[in-house]
Amino acid sequence: MYIGEYIHSTDDKGRVIMPQKFREQLSHTFYITKGIDGCLFVYDETEWNNMVEKMKSLKLTSRKAREFSRFIFAPARELEVDKQGRIIIPQNLREFAKVDKEVAIIGVSTRIEIWSKERYDEYINSDQIDYDEMMSEFEDLDI
pTM for this one? Predict the structure, then answer.
């Protein structure tokens, strides 16, 4: 399970250090793609394969299903960590997530999210997040 928040800097080539706690859990090969809310999603091989299987059940005749499949799979890239513990975020994904210098790398249970630090700070401090409403929405979880 991926948990925690880490702030790291990117270099001119789009390389960023993947937090050691996450590196220890990631498979040798893992996947990065566009995420929801303007971030990037990173999946280990097991979770990626789980998602692929679920996506296979989508109906090809559904326009929304085709759009969602393209959104996830077209920009996706297979990644590996280099000897210095870094990954290279592809240019198309850096542009999508507005990743420039600093990034927030966060663990969200079965996936890792990579955010532009500025965008993450805006999101996390947003007046649009109503924590009371969020908790009442998920009160069945009894947490």
Answer: 0.91
Sequence-distant (6+) residues with CB within 8 A of 17 are 8, 84, 85, 86
The span from the CA of 98 to the CA of 102, in Å, is 10
Residues facing residue 88 across a β-bridge? 15
CA 42 to chain centre: 4
Query: pLDDT, tens digit, for every residue of 16-29?
Result: 999 999 999 998 89
Using the CB atoms, write b or e for 50-60: b if 16+ within 10 Å.
ebeeeeeeeee
Whether residue 39 contacts residue 97, with contact meaning beta carbons closer than 8 Å, is answered with yes
pLDDT per residue over 81-140, tens digit each? 999 999 999 999 999 999 999 999 999 999 999 999 999 999 998 876 777 777 787 777
* Rounded distance between C-alpha atoms, residue 129 and residue 119, angstroms: 14
Query: What domains does the chain contain, in order, with CATH numbers?
Result: 2-141 (3.40.1550.20)
Q: In sequence order, what are the residues at sequence separation of 6 or more whose Cβ sits closer than 8 angstroms to the Cβ of residue 33?
A: 40, 41, 43, 72, 73, 75, 76, 77, 93
Q: Please enumerate in sequence order all residues whose Cβ is within 8 A of that of 105, keeping only pairs 6 or more positions apart, or say none.
A: 5, 6, 7, 8, 16, 18, 19, 22, 112, 113, 114, 115
